[in-house]
Prior knowledge:
By secondary structure, the protein is α/β, with parallel strands linked by helices. The protein contains six helices and five strands.
Amino acid sequence: MTWLTHRPRRSARVRLFCLPHSGGGTSAFRDWPDDLPGWIDVVPVALPGREERLDEPSLQSMTELAAAVGDALRPHLDRPFALFGHSMGALLAYEIALRQLRADGPAPVALLVAGIAPPHRLPPSDLHTLPDDAFLDALASLGGIPDRLRQEDDLLRGALPAMRADTTVVGTYRHRAGPLLDCPLVAFCGADDPLGPRPTCPPGPT
């Protein structure tokens, strides 16, 4: 069971563990090393049920997923590290950071999140309970499926289990009050993101 796409570099000053959006995989971060300084080691996390782990069952609860990923990362937290997550990955990154805090383990130097509301303000969702076609239409309406891919029925059906499992993780997630994180938090949001907290998003540079 391989959770990381490569063995983290010992020469890196910071390890950046990247967690994908619902139904996404490590390919989302393929070009990141080209755009970041060499002293940052970009380490995408491979979740089960997609890409090279397509034959493995996806995990469908945040508790189980955060525990599994947290255990996989633990041997590699021997130097400064940061967590980045997008959409479901942001929620997962937050829960991993919390687990580290509760276990008195090493804390990330930064928690970087994008594409989701704050955990304590996450609106309820029954997306994961919809029939397949309605489920895919709903994802497409949220920008989660490119138009060209929406026409590729075979590809979509192959990715459906992972997408449904991930939306189940988010839809059944319940935030529990606990200790405050003691690391910097950076939140990114898109001006046109239908799920983002738009009033808190400052305009970008012109």
